[in-house]
Amino acid sequence: GEDVEQSLFLSVREGDSSVINCTYTDSSSTYLYWYKQEPGAGLQLLTYIFSNMDMKQDQRLTVLLNKKDKHLSLRIADTQTGDSAIYFCAESADRDDKIIFGKGTRLHILP
Amino acid sequence: SQTIHQWPATLVQPVGSPLSLECTVEGTSNPNLYWYRQAAGRGLQLLFYSVGIGQISSEVPQNLSASRPQDRQFILSSKKLLLSDSGFYLCAWSEGNVNEQYFGPGTRLTVT
């Protein structure tokens, strides 16, 4: 069945770039998402990318997609303390299809 | 603008007691609605989704049930809670033909 894998923890120094990686198994994935969950709160959609795109940039966020390797990454430039959260990678095969989530990567910011 | 509400924010219930969690959405019509559970170390698991009033699809077998009595109201229930039901329950909505989902603040349930 479909599966989304990501590492559980990442520590980054304030001001450095954070790169959160994700792999997925469903070759029919069309939409790939990154969600952010701050402590004790719900999920917030950060960005998404269509499978026919290689890259999407939005201010400090850059999403890279390697469709051949089924690898998705989220780069956060100039990481700040407010970026401390859990980041979920997710995919769906279609607009109307259910979303499959990874287990989330907890980003910890070092001073 | 659209908003999504969940209550209660936290809940502590004994094993065997009933459960009712409520989710309401404002500012949109005929949304798709979802219930997720986030358990420690297990990521986010889709429990139920609904594309309309009275239409509920269950993703995993369990002792939970969901109902949608009104267009923008989604309720998660249980007749008898188990210890394994503890977790963070998230409600989400999406437009009918777009899969971008928007999440509520969540309910943290502890079953003792």
Description:
With 111 residues, chain A is mostly beta strands. Chain A is built from no helices and 11 strands. In chain A, the strands form 2 sheets. In chain A, strands 2, 4, 5, 9, 10 and 11 form a 6-stranded mixed β-sheet that branches. In chain A, strand 7 and strand 8 form a beta hairpin. The radius of gyration of chain A is 13 Å and the shape is globular. The termini of chain A are far apart. Chain B is mainly beta and 112 residues long. Chain B has no helices and 11 strands. In chain B, the strands form 2 sheets. In chain B, strands 2, 4, 5, 6, 9, 10 and 11 form a 7-stranded mixed β-sheet that branches. A 4-stranded antiparallel β-sheet of chain B has the order 1-3-8-7, with no helix packed on it. The chains are: A mainly beta (111), B mainly beta (112). Chains A and B meet through strand 4 and strand 5 of A and strand 5 and strand 10 of B.
Set down the secondary structure blueprint:
The complex is a heterodimer of chains A (111) and B (112).
Chain A: E1 4-6, E2 9-13, E3 18-24, E4 31-37, E5 43-50, E6 55-58, E7 61-66, E8 71-76, E9 85-92, E10 100-101, E11 105-110
Parallel strand pairs in A: 2-11
Antiparallel strand pairs in A: 1-3, 3-8, 4-5, 4-9, 6-7, 7-8, 9-10, 9-11
Chain B: E1 3-7, E2 10-13, E3 19-26, E4 32-38, E5 44-52, E6 55-58, E7 64-70, E8 73-78, E9 87-94, E10 102-103, E11 107-111
- Low-confidence sequence ranges of chain B: none
Shape, per Cα inertia axes of chain B: globular
- Return Rg of chain B in Å: 13 Å
Task: List how many beta strands of chain B DSSP finds.
Answer: 11
pLDDT under 50 segments of chain A (min length 5)?
none
Largest sheet entry of chain B: 7 strands, mixed
The chain pair forming the largest interface, with residue counts per chain, is: A-B, 23 and 24 residues
Structural category of chain B is mainly beta
Percent of residues of chain A in helical segments? under 10%
What count of helical segments of chain B does DSSP give?
A: 0
**Basic shape of chain A:** globular
Count all strands of chain A and give the number. Answer: 11
Question: How far apart, in Å, are the first and last alpha carbons of chain B?
Answer: 38 Å
Beta-strand level of the residues of chain A, as a percent range? over 45%
In whole angstroms, the N-to-C terminal distance of chain A is 40 Å
